[in-house]
């Protein structure tokens, strides 16, 4: 069988790379690795400085450069994988919903700043990021989401903790 007859194609290869990238993105969120999550989303490395400023109880400058960062102190922008900010994992969750579930307020703020859609519903549970925050009593995240115009429908307001 020649190379041209094989099932390998650039399109199949890019799909595999994208699926791996999505899996790695959600894994980095699950373990709280904000710099790596930013890398996979192609968000500029300068945003790490914003995270340093807003993480409660943590002194500025304590988040080190990530090993994948190509610069001398995260001053250059990193293209990363450039995954869609609203990409969904195999569970049907967006990075914003996943960051809410893992109580990563700094990452939630950065995702919203870069265009994450707070009104999207999870594929299986049909919940928004604000509903996940309210269910888990993450009031600081709920307030942030509401400041970005995330709302609950009247039906949801009655069933969720206030």
Structure description:
By secondary structure, the protein is mainly alpha-helical. It has a single domain (3-159), classed as Ankyrin repeat-containing domain (Serine Threonine Protein Phosphatase 5, Tetratricopeptide repeat, Alpha Horseshoe). It is 46% helix and 0% strand. The protein is built from eight helices and no strands. Helix 5 (105-113) runs parallel beside helix 7 (139-147) and helix 6 packs antiparallel against helix 7 (139-147). It is globular. The model is unreliable at 1-10, 54-64 and 72-78 (pLDDT under 50).
What's this entry about, in short?
With 162 residues, the chain is an all-alpha fold.
Task: Give the SSE string.
Answer: HHHHHHHH
Summed up, the domain count is 1
Q: From the 3D structure, determine the CATH topology.
A: Serine Threonine Protein Phosphatase 5, Tetratricopeptide repeat
- As a whole number of angstroms, the C-alpha radius of gyration is 18 Å
List the defining traits of the structure above.
0% strand, mainly alpha, Serine Threonine Protein Phosphatase 5, Tetratricopeptide repeat, 162 residues, 8 helices
Q: Secondary structure elements and their pairing?
A:
Elements lengths: L9 H21 L3 H8 L5 H8 L40 H7 L3 H9 L15 H7 L3 H9 L6 H6 L3
